Amino acid sequence: NCSRSDPHNTCYLIRFQDSLLKRTFKGEIYQKLYSYHYLINGFAVFLSPQQ
């Protein structure tokens, strides 16, 4: 159930995943088990003791 007003772009991500699988496994049989579509915005950084 995709909506243009989807604030998390869930539908876009699922369609992108499906397209990527289709291109990667051209003509092969595969089974998509689950779509992970929750995103986390973050980063990692090394800091010195002084920082």
TrEMBL record:
Pfam families: Inhibitor_I9 (PF05922)
Residues annotated as domain Inhibitor I9: 18-51
InterPro entries: S8pro/Inhibitor_I9
Protein name: Inhibitor I9 domain-containing protein
Organism: Nymphaea colorata (pocket water lily)
